[in-house]
Design goal:
The complex is a heterodimer of chains A (685) and B (229). With 685 residues, chain A is an alpha+beta fold. Chain A contains 26 helices and 18 strands. Chain B is globular. The chains are: A alpha+beta (685), B mainly beta (229).
Chain lengths: 685, 229
């Protein structure tokens, strides 16, 4: 289950070395964008139990700064100080009303709440009292005590707000410092070390400082979330699904606080269960729920959107070059990627925590290169550092991709790729990077496209998107990460279709780009088979093979046995046709292929190349009285003999696409050696 | 105690993970509860609750594919329809081991007669399958204590049953967790179980551990261990 993976991640967080401050920041929304402006008005209501006085102060937790001259000042929160006010932004529902369970008295205030402060009674009844009733710290207080308390705090708040100038769309936070609660503590000095979080200076006891106790605050936050989870069912003394042990209390794992399991959508609820009997399915104990919350929040922090450039490469159609070149950029639904690391067996949580934490660190902080770049394998802009003291393969990487709106519980999982072995992922990372650094420039240079910037080679997703098409991206990624066989037939077919389409438009540049990608992807497959599957590839570097065939072609050393595959025959036929075309053009100023082979409405086939191209060369050369060029005749004879074999072995039909792709490669790469030498001579002169 | 093994295979399967709400993801292979459910269907017992145990062996590597399916809603009227992503297992094939004192002999009888009371399917009604008897094992030998030598198993192994996993370099281990374990009747479930499996269906070597109840539930069949749960 996804929940089980999240619990493993959460157990790693709990076993890790994070302080209460870090855990509080993780479990609450203090660093979320949507709570940023609330920290402009933080009200601290300090209550004195001895005499019932309440003193209220208001301060921003952050400062206003302008990004540039003449620009409006913007509010920037103090990221360290805000953790002392651990608020949670309501997900759905009416935020003006009390929602869920509050761990201790620290509440978000919207503009309407400020307006209610004009009448302290209204503020007490509509804002404060419903919240106090839903606050864990005041669960044991009587209703009478809560009413009285709400009244005096409202009175003091009202007076404080009346002193401040009113504004539009005011947002704020109310923290009630009640020393009767364990979670608060006075201190003689400002203490921000250890487990204390500084709230502010005391107004009622000058010289003293107000603090939040981090460890107790954490317990209360977990308690509040656990109580929230009980809305769909709770049981006493039942066996937790995740520990298989009897717990004092368990709750249903489905609830609105973790929107992945929100029951708003279609759900796996049995018709035999009542609305509050979800515990008959998956039930969770308090400790596992705490781990679940930590894991879920951490994954939220590690979630990254896939970039538009990557989405364009993934989702553009592959068989049509025209459609591919004009994709609607705004039309791609945003996809998010999130990684998880779980132990293979139920141990080693400290180590998995270190690996997870390394994803949150920047390269500069880390000080050494990352061991695994998730951007290269999965388009997720995060890096992982492997442990030095343990084998990373005792853990498994999980990649989750989803689209939709998490805040509405509208989540559509695109792919969940589990059981990725870290060392396999690392090998893939190295392959893709070597491909980008070494293979891509070499192939681009061959097709005279040096320096062309393309996102096609950015990561595995873009490679598979271009090679296999949008419908196969996730399955290909899963196969690659699991070390399964990858095939070339789809890309070979798609490239042949695109080359024919581009040839009709005489888009030589476009054809070269398609061939560049094909060669690079075939190199990737060779590297993949060798490194991941321990299978030796064809053992032939395509570029070297082409160079050798071209050399033999120009030197007249080509023999029938050199053309022992449809690819080689296709390539040399391409050279032959181009050489003939050059001579034909010089004599007739007509494109040989276009006028004689590629007739309107036809799709080029190997059979057409043979019958309408190769076989007609001699006849046309005699008819137009021209010499096709040096070495044409001996090469022509070899190609004719090889075609005989090709027809016997059905290459022209069974290896249709392989032949065509290599034909175009030969056709586009042919160079007249004399011209090339003279160009080189001119350049050197 | 007798044990019976039967094979089930199909073109697709879907064993829904109960914690995916909008998207329907599947477990990577048949769940213990679904395997027992198939036995219940063969025997014609609607709410099949038993203390008998099952073991599962993957006969083909796990392959999945995601599809968009149009689901018609019940509550919002007949016109309501929502495209839903569903993950399907492709060409699943399993060998189910069944052992216990309650229903094993009746199951053997049914399988030998090639009969099933209700249709049997792989998680969803559109993934029909026909169980085929593989073998009946009489007087199976049971492992009772921990061993000093590693056991070899082609069946999936519960994580809790592993004291130590032998990390053979040519093996690729997968972890599949959070399977609901015990069916208590009336659509009520209890406990969960996590498994280790070899992704290419090759044998796993491991040192067995006592479970939380201090027992080992491993049958020794033809020199190999079959973990039962």
């Amino acid at each position: 289950m996804l929940t089980e993976s999240l619990i493993h991640v959460g157990r790693a967080v709990l076993a890790g070395s994070w302080t209460s401050r870090q855990k509080l920041a993780l479990l609450t929304d203090v660093h979320a964008d949507n709570t940023k402006n609330f920290f402009q008005n933080v009200f601290i209501a300090e209550y004195s139990p001895s005499d019932g006085r309440v003193a209220v102060s208001c301060k921003p937790v952050g400062n206003y700064a302008s990004e540039g001259r003449g620009k409006k000042k913007e509010f920037h929160v103090d990221t360290r100080a805000v953790v002392a006010f651990p608020v949670v932004y309501p997900s759905g529902g009416n935020p003006l009303l009390a929602q869920g369970i509050y761990p201790f008295p620290c509440y978000l205030m919207f503009d309407r709440h400020f307006q209610w402060l004009g009448d302290p009674l209204e503020f007490a009844n509509s804002f404060l009292l419903p919240r106090l009733r839903s606050t864990v710290s005041y669960r044991s207080a009587s209703e009478h005590e809560r009413v009285q308390f709400a009244a005096i705090v409202s009175q003091a708040m009202s007076a404080e707000v009346a002193r401040k100038p009113s504004g539009d769309k005011r947002l704020g936070i109310l923290m009630i410092f009640d020393p009767r609660l364990d979670v608060f503590a006075y201190g003689g000095r400002r203490d921000e070390t250890g487990e204390h979080l500084w709230i502010g200076e005391s107004m009622l006891e000058p010289g003293k400082h107000l603090h939040l106790k981090g460890d107790i605050a954490l317990q209360l936050v977990s308690e509040a979330r656990f109580l929230e989870a009980s809305e769909l069912g709770r049981e006493k003394h039942a066996i937790s699904t995740f520990t298989n042990r009897k717990s004092d209390e368990v709750v249903a794992v489905y609830n609105r606080s973790w929107l992945w399991l929100s029951p708003t959508w279609d759900l796996p609820k049995s018709i035999y269960w009542k609305d509050n009997e979800w515990t008959k399915g998956v039930k969770i104990d308090r400790k596992s729920y705490e781990a679940f919350l930590n894991g879920a929040q951490l994954i939220k922090q590690l979630t990254r959107p896939l970039s538009n450039a990557v989405l364009k490469e993934i989702f553009s159609p592959i068989t049509n070059a025209e459609a591919r070149s004009r994709p609607d950029k705004g039309n791609f639904e945003r996809i998010y990627g999130a990684p998880m690391i779980v132990p293979l067996l139920d141990r080693g949580y400290e180590i998995s925590f270190n690996m997870i934490e390394s994803m949150l660190r920047e390269q500069e902080v880390r000080g050494r290169p990352a061991d695994l770049h998730l951007s290269t394998i999965g388009g997720i802009e995060l890096d992982i550092e492997f442990p030095e003291s343990a084998d990373p393969d005792e853990f498994r990487l999980v990649l989750l991709y989803y689209s939709g709106e998490l805040s509405r519980g509208d989540v559509h999982i695109r792919a969940l790729i589990e059981d990725v072995i870290p060392s396999v992922a690392r090998k893939l990372d190295l392959i893709v990077r070597e491909l980008k650094d070494a293979v891509v420039p070499e192939v681009q240079s061959k097709f005279e496209a040096s320096g062309e910037i393309s996102y096609r080679y950015e990561n595995l997703l873009t490679l598979f998107g271009n090679a296999y098409g949008p419908g196969y991206v996730w399955s290909a990624l899963r196969d690659a990460l699991h070390g399964r066989q990858l095939y070339a037939d789809r890309i070979v077919r798609a490239t042949a279709a695109k080359l024919t389409e581009l040839a009709k438009k005489e888009d030589t540049w476009g054809m070269k780009k398609e061939l560049t990608f094909l060669v690079i992807f075939l190199s990737f497959l060779d590297m993949y088979n060798e490194s991941i599957r321990n299978e030796t590839g064809k053992g032939e570097d395509l570029l070297s093979q082409w160079d050798e065939l071209m050399r033999k072609y120009h030197d007249g050393e080509l023999r029938e046995e050199d053309l022992d595959s449809p690819e080689k025959l296709g390539f040399v036929t391409g050279l032959l046709m181009r050489q003939f075309h050059n001579a034909f053009w010089a004599k007739t100023e007509k494109d040989f292929l276009k006028s004689r082979v590629l007739q309107f409405g036809n799709k080029l086939t190997p059979d057409m190349i043979w019958k309408d191209g190769v076989l007609r060369c001699k006849e046309l050369a005699i008819k137009w009285s021209f010499n096709p060029g040096k070495m044409f005749d001996p090469n022509y004879a070899v190609v004719c003999l090889a075609f005989d074999r090709a027809r016997q072995e059905n290459w022209l039909t069974e290896k249709f696409y392989e032949f065509l792709n290599m034909f175009w490669a030969g056709y586009l790469l042919y160079k007249n050696p004399k011209k090339e030498e003279s160009t080189k001579g001119e350049e050197s002169a | 105690m007798d044990m019976v093994a039967f094979d089930i295979r199909g073109s697709i399967a879907h064993f829904r993970r109960p914690d995916t709400t909008a998207t329907h993801l599947t477990y990577p292979f048949i769940t213990p509860t679904a395997a027992k459910g198939i036995v219940g269907a063969i025997l014609g017992i609607e709410d099949f609750v038993t203390s008998d145990k099952v073991g599962i062996r993957l006969l083909k590597p796990v392959r999945t594919v995601a599809q968009q399916m149009s689901m018609l809603g019940k509550e919002s009227g007949p016109s309501f329809n929502r495209p839903t992503t569903i993950e399907l297992l492709v060409e699943p094939s399993y060998r189910i081991y069944y052992a216990g004192t309650e229903y094993t002999s009746r199951l053997i009888e049914r399988l030998q007669q090639d009969q099933s009371v209700y249709p049997t399917f792989l998680g969803v009604a559109y993934a029909l399958t026909k169980p085929e008897l593989y073998k009946v094992y009489e007087d199976v030998e049971w492992l009772e204590t921990e061993t000093s030598e590693p056991l070899t198993s082609r069946s999936i192994v519960p994580v809790a049953s592993i004291r130590e996993l032998v990390m053979d370099p040519d093996r690729r281990f997968g972890r599949a967790g959070g399977f609901l374990h015990e069916y208590k009747g009336n659509r009520t479930f209890e406990r969960s179980i996590d498994f280790i499996y070899e992704t290419a269906c090759r044998p796993i070597r491991f040192y067995p551990a006592l479970d939380s109840e201090g027992r080992i539930r491993i049958a020794l069949v033809e020199g190999e261990a079959v973990c039962l749960f």
